[in-house]
Amino acid sequence: MLRPYRFLSTASCFCVMFTPASLAFLRGLARHNNKPWFEAQRASYENDVRAPMRALIEEMDVRLARFAPEITGDPKRSMFRINRDIRFSKDKSPYKTHAACWFRHQGASHKVGGEAEEGSAGLYFHLQPGKSFVGGGIWMPPRPALNKIRDAIAEDARGFAQVVENPRARRFGGLDDGAMLKRMPRGFAEDHPAAQWLRYQSFTIGRLLTDKQVLGPGLVKLLEGDFALMMPLVRWLNRALGLRQATAGLNATKGSAISSEPVSSSTPDPELYTAVL
DNA sequence: AGCGGGGTGCCACCAACAAA
DNA sequence: TTTGTTGGTGGCACCCCGCT
C-alpha cells in the first residue's frame, strides 16, 4: 500500500503526517464533490488524509496526557466523517471539503454540537487548504449544556472574563462571535453584569493555520502549544458542565487521574508557550 | 483469515411555529 | 422582532457474526 513518508516523533512512535497530497485531495474533492470521483480517489483519502489524521489523533492523545489528561482522543472515534449531513440542507454535495478531529473530555460523549446530549468542551483541529484551523471550547452546545454554561457565567462573570480575556486566550482573538444572539436570552436582564457573555451560543477560541503550518512534523508541536493555551477556557467550561479536570503525568491510566483541582492551578508547561510564538 | 450481509448508530441541518 | 423548540427525514461507516 502506498503511504506518505513518516517521521519519528518525540513520543517514539512512527506517525504518518499530512503532505501536499493531503491538501491536493481536499482541493480535488472541492472541485469534484460527487461519489464517483470520491470512490475513484478513495485510496488517496485513506492514505493521505485519514491515516495521517488518525496518527495525529493518537500522537496528540499521548501529549494531552501530560497537560490535559482529562481530554482524550481516539483514532477510531475522534475524526469526523467525511460525509456531510445533507438530510435537510439545500446544498446536497455529499462530502465535506475538510477533515477534522475532536478531542473531548473523557467523561463526556464524543458527539459535538446540538447532537451531543452530554457534550463537553474540548479541542478541535480542522484540515482544509488555506483554511486549516485549530480551536478549543464548545461549539453550539445542546440546550441543557448551554443553560448550565450561561448559569455559570451569570454566577461568575468575573471569573469567566478572566479566562477569556487572559493574554493567552486573547492570542486567539477572543471568543468566536459568529452565532451571537441579538438580544439577551430568556431569563436574563438586558443589563445583567455578564450581559457581554450571555449572548454567545458557542464558546470557542481558535486561529487559522497556513498550509505550510499543517504540513510536516511541526504540526504536532504547534497543536500542543495552542491546545495548552486553550485549556483554561476548556476547563472553565467543563467545570460549568460538571466535568472535572484531571492531574497530569498519568498518561497510561488517565481514567484514574481525576481530581478536583481548581482551574487556576492548571498552568501548562511554559515550554509549550514557545511553540506558538 | 477473509468476505459479505445485516443491524446499529451517527452526522457542525433547516424551516416552521410558538413563546416572549 | 428575535429566541427557543420541534418535527421532518437519508445515507453511510462501523461492527458483529455466520459462512466459506
Précis, in short:
The protein has 277 residues and is α+β, with helices and mostly antiparallel strands.
Tell me how many strands there are.
Answer: 7
End-to-end Cα distance, whole Å, is 38 Å
N-to-C order of helices and strands: EEHHHEEEEHHHHEHHH
- The oligomeric state is single chain
**Main β-sheet description:** 5 strands, antiparallel
Radius of gyration: 19 Å
Helix content: 25-40%
Number of domains: 1
Strand percentage = 5-15%
Trace the largest sheet across and list its strands.
3-4-5-6-7
What is the element layout, followed by pairings?
Layout: E1 6-8, E2 14-16, H1 20-31, H2 35-40, H3 42-67, E3 71-72, E4 99-105, E5 122-127, E6 132-138, H4 143-155, H5 157-164, H6 167-170, H7 195-198, E7 203-209, H8 211-214, H9 218-240, H10 270-274
Antiparallel strand pairs: 1-2, 3-4, 4-5, 5-6, 6-7
The chain binds a DNA duplex (20 and 20 nucleotides) through residues 76, 80-81, 83-90, 94, 96, 100, 111-115, 139-140, 143, 181-183, 185-186.
